[in-house]
């Protein structure tokens, strides 16, 4: 077998562990990425909050619509009941039976001129 020849002239020198030097370019990149992350987080939180508010408002609108339709239905029922209570036949029946009233005779009617 042949031995491989190794060229040691192009080996990088190891870094010193105690005093790590970071280039200014890497610091600027780190600041930029942190600002992007903060902005992205704020936009995401705002988006979630706005969607939550939208769902809450839709629920309130549907509840108000339900209450409106129930009130309209009740108003129709009350209007029908008022019409039935005002009918002349019902009033005449109550006057004759409950109050003992009768229609006036010819002698009881006075014509005013």
Textual characterization of the structure:
The chain is mainly α. It has a domain at 26-86. Helices cover 64% and strands 0% of the residues. The protein is built from 2 helices and no strands. The chain has helices at 24-85, 88-97. It is rod-shaped and about 145 Å long. The model has no long low-confidence stretch (mean pLDDT 87).
Distance between the termini: 147 Å
What global shape is seen?
Answer: rod-shaped
Order of helices and strands: HH
Largest sheet: none
List keywords for this structure.
mainly alpha; 2 helices; rod-shaped; 113 residues
What is the secondary structure topology, with strand pairs?
Layout: H1 24-85, H2 88-97
At a glance:
With 113 residues, the protein is mostly helical.
